[in-house]
Amino acid sequence: MPTHLGRPEHRATIKVVTSHSLHILVTGTTRGIGAAVLDELKRHGARVIGHGTKGDGADQLAADLLKPLAAETLWQRALDRLGGRIDVLVNNAGIYEPVSIGESAGVWGERWQRTLQVNLQAAADLCRLAVGHFRSRAGGGRIVNVASRAAYRGDSPEHWHYAASKAGLIGVTKSIARGFAAEGIFAFAVTPGFTMTGMAEDYLSSRGGDKLLAEIPLGRVASPEEVANVVAYLALSAPPSMTGAVLDINGASYVR
Ligand SMILES: NC(=O)c1ccc[n+]([C@@H]2O[C@H](COP(=O)([O-])OP(=O)(O)OC[C@H]3O[C@@H](n4cnc5c(N)ncnc54)[C@H](OP(=O)(O)O)[C@@H]3O)[C@@H](O)[C@H]2O)c1
Question: What is the domain-level CATH number for residue 241?
């Protein structure tokens, strides 16, 4: 068992970080933040299985998380690929789809369902499976959930559901941290602000990029590599006493 992950009696050895033997599942690694997280974790020597909606590969599994049982299948397949052991789960896959209050009730409800399913329900399903696995092997483990600044600050008038999904994910993270810390199971979340991926580019261009940038004291949006750096820290070496922490990455655009 990796020394820095484990049970309470092993916590004094936190400074010894040996990520070489870690087995990690990261969702949503085909592009953007997830791709950067995958690279960063591999750079540290971890054995990582990535994921996207389509296309299995040597180190990637396909699963459309809009489908109710997809998380269960993804977890089992990842476990098989990783020889029956997963040490860290990173829930990164997410969607950012607008819906306005002027839409019909049917469209409104359908868009809420999609966003909550991918950003919250599927992530929670994977957390459930991860916690169950960590407990069954009695070796502890870590979860890093990629939430958003929107969870605390709120989002645009077309993105209530997105903000709600990310706030929900933080509630899940903190509940796991509080419920299972004594078993060596640690949970963290990151809350990026605008991050220059395809998703952010669309948003910035649709809302007048310069005005939005002016609201970020740092003067620029975050890079996927910056977010990946923080995720890797939480996944690999953050001290157990940090469990339940939510780390902001937003250029001081929202200081809480
Ligand atoms: N970029 C930002 O400004 C920003 C800010 C705050 C938080 N975040 C959060 O950071 C995470 C990554 O964002 P990003 O900007 O890197 O996103 P992105 O570039 O749009 O990539 C999203 C990833 O999620 C996967 N995904 C989307 N729908 C899925 C589904 N139904 N089933 C399974 N996988 C699905 C995509 O897979 P496919 O390629 O197969 O579709 C892709 O790998 C998200 O949780 C997002 O909410 C982003």
Answer: 3.40.50.720
